[in-house]
Structure prediction request, 1474 residues.
Amino acid sequence: MRRVPTTVLMSALLGLVLLAGSSAAQGYDFESVITDLGSTEAAVRQNAVDRLAGIGVLALPAALDALQSADPAVRQGARIAIERITYDAAGTYHAPVAASHLMAAFTESGYEPWVRDLTMQMLSMVAGPGDVPALAELIDDRRLGEAAIYVLTRTGTEEAAEALAGALDEALAEDPEKAVALVDALGRMHVAPRASVRALSSDEEAVVLAALLALPKAPDADLAEPIGDLVDSSDETVAEAARNALIELGCTLMAADQTGAAAGVFAQALDAAANVQERCAALAGYSQAGGEGAEDLLWEAMASDEASLVALASRQLVDYRLDAEEIADRINAAFSPEREALIWLLGEIGDRQAVVALREMAGHPDPMARQAVYQALKKNPDARAAVDIVANLVSDDPTIRADGIAVINRTPGASVTEAIADTVRDPGVAVEVRTELVDALGHRDPDDALSPLMWAAKTDDADMRTAALNALAALRAPEGIGGLLELALTLPEEERPLAIAAIATVPREDARPVLLDLLKDATGSKAAAVLDVLAEYGDPKLRGVFAAAAKASDPEEAAAGVAGLVSVPGPGIMAVLTGYAADEREPVRTAAKQGLLTLAESRDPQDQVSLGIYHQLLTHQASGIDEVKRALRGIAQVGSAESLDLVEPMLDDPGEAGNEVAAAMVAIAGDVALTDRDRAIRIYERILELSQDRATLTAAADALRTYGLSVNLAGPGGFVTGWWVTPPIAERAVMREENPLEISSAIDPMVPVSYDGEVYPWTFHHVDDPLGLLNLEQASARQDNVGCYALATVVSDQDRDIQLKIGSDDGIVVWVNGEKVHEVFVDRGWSVDQDVADATLTKGPNQILCKVLQGAAQWSVSVRLTKDGEPLVLPQTQPVDVAASRGVVSAWWVTDKVGTQDELRDDDVIDTSAPIDTSEPVSVDGETVPWQYVQVDNLETGYLNLRRALGDQEHLGIYGYVEFVPAQAGEAILSLGSDDDIYVWLNGDLVHRNNAARAANPGDDKVDVDLRDGINTLLVKVLQGNGDWGLVAQVLDADGNPLPIELQNLAE
Amino acid sequence: MPKGINRRDFLKRSATGALGAGLAFSLPAIVPQRAFGASDRIRVGIIGAGGMNNAHVGWLLGRQDVEIVGVCDVDSERAQQTAARVSEDTPTYGDFRALLDRDDIDAVWIATPDHWHALTSIYACQAGKDVYCEKPLTLTIDEGKAMVKAARRYGRVFQTGSQQRSDWNFRYACELARNGYVGRLHTIHVGIGGGPTSTWQPDEPVPDNLDWDMWLGPAPEVPYNVQRCHYNFRWFYDYSGGKMTDWGAHHNDIGQWGHGMDGNGPVKIEGTGTFPTSGLYNTAVNFRVEYTYADGIKMICSDANRHGVVFEGTDGEVHVDRGFLESDPPEIIKTALKPDDVHLYESPGHHDDFLECMRTRERPICDVEVGHRSVTVCHLGNIAIRTGKTVEWDPVAERITNDESLNRWLSRPYRAPWVLPT
Prediction:
């Protein structure tokens, strides 16, 4: 037992006093809450955490005690509760109470470092002046001392500083290691007590260094003297640390607005500086502190050979009033790197003189200097300089040219644009330079840039034309609309959309009057192009314009007018469009029908009006496949039985609209099912045959399942539908290089994968996706940068060569019967049949093993078997098969309660001597109890949790029944377990009875039996007292080895 | 004191580190290439040999002007595997300080778990190395302050590994927002997905190849568990900040950039979150944090938002994510910036930018202060959701103003003997 400091006890007593005053603490059942922290139910655990946190500091002792629990769930719940309670208490009047509890736990935590660290962290959030004495008592504690010192610094109180300083006084004489920690702690509190200053005189170098680090954090100019005394130390490490400390102290004084004192300290540091870095730092500080003569020192530094000193000086000189002309003169006489530093300085000064000087250097013959000028001009745009840069671009290399264009793009002015335009038109300039400048024109004032861009859009060079059209789009100039329209009608086909897109980027309020003006004289294609753009605006005021255009004699213009009407629907629009839908001109008809569809689709929600349009189009007017598809999609949206007679015949010959027909029929069937379920089922079944659309297939399958029908979506495509999957086993890179699983042709999914000291059990997952996708985020884990295995077994009736079609997200390796047939290491999204691999199946079971590597986000796999391009549908081994191969009864027919535990001990309500017809319910006292088909919870052991299957019931009895064919007849053993009593009949004979209140463990009862050839019947009666409730059965041969069985009376 | 850690060694490094220009400035000089190692090649040390740094190594190996000269990881197998990618005789280290002791190294690439970023970076600055450090830059806000100070104090070029800043899509989206092409910006929606949960896994013996004590470093002492280690560290508050910092450091960073808030931050933070109810992970699973800036603009970061960043203004919105850029109306993203628009820093590529800045001594696109300020936004969100309290923040003083007790969240105690150099 550790000694608890008296001050801790006093703090704890304070807590107890507060506790006693609270009614909430009285009689609260903390024990049950703590127990709930370890519940297997997440909701119960969360509730327990919430309850503890809700109670607050009064629950802290119980939660702290729970940290010692052997159950990791309890410990984690307690930790969360402690954190929440502490955080809630921080800054409130509860903080002292929380601190007292945490202090007690912290003091007692030596046995467990993580408890120490947790309580230290929490204590550091709430500890205050009242906790200082107790913490001070712990400073010398071997295990807790460092942590206590840390908490003390976090209280930030004078009391804590005094306590630490007192401890330091003692430690300086006795314990240098402790002294170092204490000096450092005091430094973090930004105080410099005498003890810390005394540390400078220590014989221990480490203590002196600690002091030289800590003391400068206190804004005390008097510290310069004792620190300065050490710059001449014979110990070079100490001397260097002292020089650094002076600079640090200067910084601290600057931050505390003691600039005068700081200048003095920096001057001292400057004198002491022993290398260029120290000189840089001290000079920068001296300059910033306004030290006398600092500017002269900086100019001296500019002339230095040391690049870093030059750079430092240039940065500092920005703060002085400098004459740009004088700097320009210096540049003329300077060499790199001073020259570039001076150019940079001009850029920072940025006044008129500076810009003039930079302008004059824009054509500097040295590329390094020119680049520096460009960088400086980026910050100081100047039109005349930009004009010069345009001229220079021709000779600049691409890197410098990019800087030059960046300057140009930041410099407004017509003269710049003019210079650009001249260069663009200059055939003597390289076309790549001209093209880059065309792009730059897109950033200019449209008044100046439009003309050269129009010129560029008509040149012979395709790249330049494209650049010009993009630049015109960026220009968004209404003045360019006319020219763009002309271009749209004359450019090569593939470039016309760029011209139309460029018109569409013009702000509408500017573009509209221009377009309307153009429309006055336009006809045919040109008018249609204008109308197309206007239709984008959706402005009702344009309705008259569109109506007039719709009556034009030119079909293209009329069609554009009809489309325009759709964009501004008004009263009577349906009738108008219906009329145009019968127009003799194809473009007009098409526009009207598209318009009708648009109007129908835009109704929210889509209704009978919409439906009427869709029906009308399908019945009388639809012509193109796109219109048919749109109408069908609309019908699917409405989902009315009224569409049945119209759409159902299309199932016979849906043509290209197969998916749309199917989707519509799914929706229609939903409405049909309200009055005619059988017909709806027939529709769904036809859709499963017809559709190839994933969403439609899934919807139809889901609908059928609601009627109790089983649907296998993936199977007909030859997809693997049953996978055993491991959790993530290792990181992707590791899994790529290694195989944690021994690859063979006989992997047993009942045996977990063991790797690196861990076990990773297989779990079974059924694929219910029409494209066979197994979502590994659900089946394995939602985790990035890992890998897992997926295993399936297919049964072939002959030896055969096949092709596996594989899809994966991300990488995958595939083995068939232990032979690697495929591998691909990629980062990709999943799609079906991404890879194809040849493989050979042998007669009988064949194992397909995949290692699927996960990068990030989605994680999935699909595999299907094909032969000559057609799906190969083979039986696949299901979990029950695997269990049966081990003699495990993996599924049972069970009744619900057929009597009480007492009633059934010596009586039965069924004929136990005959085979059971599980389709016939059991009759008990005039009530019927049906047989239910349930699968066991653990396929490895065969454990059936009856509490899960039948509910939480007590004092009752039920029957369980199964039929099986053993691999061999004769002597065998039934290995059984039950919770509680069990009675067993094999082939009608009572072979075992055990009345015991017990848990159901495999192999608790071993019963010698004789199995017969063919079907054997196994009937059990399980009686339940209270608590857990279950059943286990496995068939063994006479030697006690698993005897394979084949279950017979499985449900579909 | 854990084995292999010597406080005296810390002191010597901290007290005698190579000073740079110091104070508030980094060195601005154009440093001649000859300042670097033999053959003008930049010599790089790798600290942390997990997934991220192996990606960086792949890139670095493709550069003729870069030479990787050492690899450090507390997992000796990882260190050796990564070193083997470089050459047969590339030395490996288990203690980053040994690597930093080499005076022939110009820069280090740091991709450790987050709780090590501050110490490794600061010691690297002290040792006169330029630093490329992965995001999220810090575990606490005070660590960020110390890192900024160290980079300035020792004149180091420091690139934060938020590589989205070097992506054209993100920069352009931010320029559109900054220049009013979405109208008056009023809301930034940040979507970063929810955090994971874990299953129970018992503690276990430390693998022979792992120095677990060094892996923990300044973090609280706990038994070894594979679920804590390597990639999964990000789901523990002792080592990281969950999805909020893991992805928030990317997308909140873009939110800050597009709002022009580098070097600044929100003034009020409100948030809610849910946390795992089982397993070891303890970082938030779902969350919603609303940041309010002094100009009234709000940034809403949530697992439920569409992934990426949406800048919403009075005239439209721009949605940007990796490889994705959309606007409503669509015309917005066809806009060309005008000469007098705000033009943001154009990075030639995140690594290239860093290497270039090593030569010019300019600050790179995601300088340490940018990284610090962006992850500060994330940390403030975590403080709000973990305490359930409204946080009022002074982004200039970098202090919480409405509840003094919350300022203790700005730092956290280190496990002795580690201390944060401040």
About this structure: The domain at 7-163 of chain B is CATH 3.40.50.720 (Rossmann fold). The two ends of chain B are 21 Å apart (CA to CA).
